């Protein structure tokens, strides 16, 4: 039998997971600078959450969801994105009683049945956030400022911010009519999906990946040209703040986003390094979603970064953090009588915050030292009958072989010695 991970999924192993952890910690710290708290939501939701949340006519709902029936006959779906689940939780947990804006960030794995290619997986990860209750452009600009600071802290440069507005529901209604007028003469040529989109949700015609329909979309009228005065003012409010902070942006009137819930500001961060899947982050404002899912009318906005694509970009720009080298000591045992004292010393060191390893595979002393070398730990210490009798052993630096005597009954001093040699210690 040969078992493999399902197509589009990947194992993440150390030391790579250490790099992921560093990026995630940087994200959590940046969110904390803007007063966001972490939310954790279930991996699956009732299917309606996504049908109503993301939109029935989107590719995500139509083609990409992992939906199944549980043993109780309920239809459940593995989350294809985070926003709908966070909104469901916002309503269910009564978070609207908290002071506005309610600011929540998340780090999630998501599932979409997609064509697998570079930067496109069936299980992937997002670093995202949602802010509820702030109606003005200031919060839209602030989430972008958070993103910009996060990228800066990671050392990333030249990730282009593309900005657009999808206006209010009223503007979109007018625009949908204009789209129908544009597409009407070509109706017969459209793919079956687009013929359905034409009837149900013309905005989704612009997402089509079929070559002919994609080309046709390039000549379609632009929603930006149908914005009402209020939406334009909101948009100008966002750009004024971005300019004030010196955050460069490009107005990209073709951004429509692949999810139905957006209104007014939408944005994407795009890079050329991630190949055809160049969108590292997408987000925007969604003022009706809380109400659509059964809550009060609460305006909101947010974004999600594709973590795999972010790491690809960091690699391409040469700013991927190197895996942190392991710290600590390997305590080798020269004979059976040293096994218990070694275990005791290791635990005493761990209590003092020092990483310590002992032999757990009953190796010879020579094999233990070889193993210690492979672990890459900076120190080793050998315990044998002689050391136990003297109550003293030699702490050996693995890098240069230098040794210094240490008392076995003074773990505080031993811990201090190991700490003082740790990278970054004074
Ligand atoms: P999205 O544009 O569907 O938006 O996804 C956000 C990001 O997730 C994309 O820009 C991309 O980097 C990454 N991503 C999406 N699909 C895949 C995939 N199959 N493989 C690898 N990476 C992928 C959302 O999910 C919205 N919930 C964002 C949002 C939050 N809007 C408001 N709040």
Short description:
The chain has 426 residues and is an alpha+beta fold. The protein has helices at 16-33, 47-53, 59-64, 83-92, 137-154, 169-183, 192-200, 211-218, 229-245, 289-292, 307-316, 339-351, 365-375, 385-390, 411-420; strands at 37-38, 44-46, 67-69, 75-78, 102-111, 123-132, 160-165, 250-251, 265-270, 279-285, 300-306, 329-333, 356-358, 379-383, 392-397, 403-407.
Proportion of beta-strand residues: 15-25%
CATH-assigned fold name of the largest domain? BirA Bifunctional Protein, domain 2
Mean pLDDT: 94
CATH superfamily of the largest domain: Bira Bifunctional Protein, Domain 2
Query: How many discrete domains?
Result: 2
Commentary on this structure:
With 426 residues, the chain is an alpha+beta fold. It is built from 15 helices and 16 strands. The chain has helices at residues 16-33, 47-53, 59-64, 83-92, 137-154, 169-183, 192-200, 211-218, 229-245, 289-292, 307-316, 339-351, 365-375, 385-390, 411-420; strands spanning 37-38, 44-46, 67-69, 75-78, 102-111, 123-132, 160-165, 250-251, 265-270, 279-285, 300-306, 329-333, 356-358, 379-383, 392-397, 403-407. An eight-stranded mixed β-sheet has the order 1-5-6-11-10-9-7-8. It has a five-stranded mixed β-sheet with strand order 13-12-14-15-16, sandwiched between helices. A three-stranded antiparallel β-sheet has the order 2-4-3, with helices on one face. The longest helix has 18 residues, at 16-33.
